[in-house]
Amino acid sequence: MDEKEVIDAVEENTEEVIVNEDAVVENVNGEIDTDTLIEVKDVKKTFGKNEVLKGITFSVRKGEVISIIGSSGSGKSTLLRCINKLESADGGEILYKGLDILNNKTDINKLRQSIGMVFQSFNLFNNKNVIDNCTLAPRKLKKMKKPIAEKIALENLTKVGMQDFKDKRVQTLSGGQKQRVAIARTLCMSPDVILFDEPTSALDPEMVGEVLDVMKNLASSGMTMIVVTHEMGFARDVSDRVIFMDKGVIAEEGSPADIFNNPKEERTREFLKRVLNN
Ligand SMILES: Nc1ncnc2c1ncn2[C@@H]1O[C@H](COP(=O)(O)OP(=O)(O)OP(=O)(O)O)[C@@H](O)[C@H]1O
Ligand SMILES: [Mg+2]
Fold first, then answer.
1. Quick one: average pLDDT of 13-32?
2. Distance in Å, CA 236 to ligand 2 centroid
3. For atom 16 of ligand 1, which residue has the closest CA?
4. Predicted confidence band of residue 112 (pLDDT cuts 50, 70, 90)
5. pTM, two decimal places
6. How many whole angstroms separate alpha carbon 104 and alpha carbon 19?
7. Residue minimizing CA distance to atom 3 of ligand 1
8. Which atom in ligand 1 lies closest to the alpha carbon of residue 245?
9. Which residues approach ligand 1 with their CB closer than 6 A?
10. How far is Cα 276 from Cα 268, in angstroms, rounded to an integer?
11. Whose CA is nearest to atom 27 of ligand 1?
């Protein structure tokens, strides 16, 4: 299901949040840890006979920037898609603020408003203008009035340097501009965390920098981010933590210094040698 389909699905089901108490998981002291936003516990996902995620465990604290790196096919996108339930994990547990997202009683549409996602291919409406792309979801999903939605959209377009393009049709923009609009669009929902799936991979090289700059600014503003990326410079310089995935498992996890200067695993060393020499 892509993001447009998500919006359509929500339109059909505009019921108020069903955050059932049964879905809230407490820690051993009977408290909900408010600093941990996302906990992924032993998550598994199989497509046919292909076990793509073989038990993934990690957690994300408020304000953290986590980069996920790894070879093509290692399961990075599948992991992100399981976190906002674009795919349904078939084993393990994913908690968002203590709420079990795999529990059917959790309102997944409401959850997706808090967990924003930025895709490699933008997923914007090409025949609509920039500001309409940004106001659509807040108006439909949050029932925001048009002038308020536009004010918020303009603020977020300003953050990504796209305010002067607000009336332009998306199809007239460059790739870098489209991705900046896609980031502004996500910000308009005031998410708690944003998942980025290779946001610069579809861009011409000269446009990568402008998008990474926007992401760096977001990171320093305190936004919680999980970023699947092939940009090793970003992973090294901007993230708090780097996760290296290999064949459906987390092969190694640590600070950027741990991973880039002192990798413990042979497969991490091999991967880095390959990508850094290209
Ligand atoms: N919807 C699907 N149906 C069947 N197989 C899938 C599906 N989505 C992913 N896969 C398979 O799962 C494996 C992991 O794919 P995934 O897209 O998560 O990898 P990735 O690490 O994001 O790779 P890349 O760096 O190329 O984006 C691949 O073998 C892929 O073919
Ligand atoms: Mg991918």
1. 46
2. 19
3. 75
4. confident
5. 0.89
6. 10
7. 47
8. 21
9. 47, 50, 52, 70, 72-78
10. 12
11. 72
Question: Which pLDDT tens digit goes with each residue over 43-84?
Answer: 999 999 999 999 999 999 999 999 999 999 999 999 999 999
pLDDT digits (tens, 9 = 90+) for 191-223: 999 999 999 999 999 999 999 999 999 999 999
CA distance 190 to 16: 18
3-class SS at 251?
Answer: strand
The pLDDT value recorded for residue 144 is: 96
Nearest to 177 by CA among 129, 225, 238: 129
Helix ranges, the chain (H): 3-12, 76-83, 108-114, 130-141, 146-159, 175-187, 205-220, 232-238, 256-261, 266-276
**For the CA atoms of 203, 122, 215, 205, what is the dihedral angle to 10 degrees?**
0
CB atoms within 10 A of CB 50: 10
pLDDT surpasses 80 at 10:
no
> Which numbered atom of ligand 1 lies nearest the CA of 71?
25
Residue nearest to atom 7 of ligand 1 (CA): 47
CA distance 244 to 230: 11
